Amino acid sequence: MAAIILISVGVLFNIFGCLGLIRLPDVYNRLQAATKCVTLGCCSILLGVLVHFGIGGAGFRALVAIPILFFTATVAAHALVRGAYHFGAKLDKRSVKDDYREEVK
Amino acid sequence: MTGLLNILLYIQIALCAPCLYRIIRGPTIPDRMVGIDIFGILVVGICGIIAVQTERAFILDIGIAWVILSFIGTLTLAKYLGGKKLNE
Amino acid sequence: MRYLGIFILSMIFWLLVTFRFTLPNIAAGVVASAITAAIFGRYYFHNVGKFLQPRRWFWFTVYLVSFIWACIKANFDVAYRVLHPAMPIKPGIVKVKTTLKSDFARTLLANSITMTPGTITVDIIGDEMYIHWIFIRSEDPALYTRMITGRFEEYIKKFAE
Prior knowledge:
The complex is a heterotrimer. Chain A contains four helices and one strand; from the N terminus they run H-H-H-E-H. By secondary structure, chain A is mainly alpha-helical. Chain B has one domain (12-81). By secondary structure, chain C is mainly α. Chain C folds into two domains: 2-48, no CATH class; 54-160, no CATH class. Chain C has helices at 2-18, 23-40, 54-83, 103-115, 141-149, 152-160; strands at 92-97, 119-125, 128-133. In chain C, strands 1-3-2 form a three-stranded antiparallel sheet, covered by helices on one side. In chain C, helix 3 packs antiparallel against helix 6 (152-160). The interface between A and B is large, with 50 and 47 residues. Strand 1 (97-98) of chain A pairs parallel with strand 1 of chain C.
């Protein structure tokens, strides 16, 4: 039962993340919302898998997948946001501050 | 219990639609790549739910391999986008 | 010494993923870990002895607990901003100074900042980190440095430096 609850929470977080992917205005905000919510949602699903299978071969596989998911998702987000800035993606017009601009030039 | 798991699986698969929307309609190229990146992470969740549903553990191996390959692909594309070579 | 450290780590990883303790499986793991250690050993930590100090493991546990708490808070923060009809965002890129020196500690700090509420690391140049913030709450550099890096910097300094 605990496994089902964890998986439901994970799917709920994923829904928030994908909603952010549609609604937010520019690439930086989208990446931020989606990376956070979807990564933690999938980690929650994998925790549910761990609870379901118990300690054993399958459970340890889920446990190993969680840190891999965290590191790859965050590093990919850094690379993407940096690439997007160098590519020339504009910040949204509601933005108030941009300290990075003079550093790039 | 299995019914609820089925519904969760369908919701998780349906969540790929926003990513596809972002890939198809994204105004700039970085937007499309954000869609691809998030799509890669969502597939791991799908693998996890299917593994619980069918009681087969090897599907989790597919998830681990998928997340690493998706990471390498995103990193390569992001470096290309930033106009840098891969070893910088 | 470094090569031994990465060999042991990849061996543990192999055994956790396959989880079969037969002789052919362990032999394949040894061969694969040896190849990994031979290729990537020189990029590993310089001082493996740090792994054996209990004090560092204690601070690592403290860091992990506060990190998970920040993650959960970040998700509710994103949910609030996405579900609110008017979308209360005020984004911008701010500059933050860090006192951490080693590459590993900096990577860890950047990852922690990405997972805490409302912030994502864009770049690290020299001692300065550039951070995209979804809702800028203050214009004072000293104040927002403390808001963003928060407790993570001291914890990471205690176990990773």
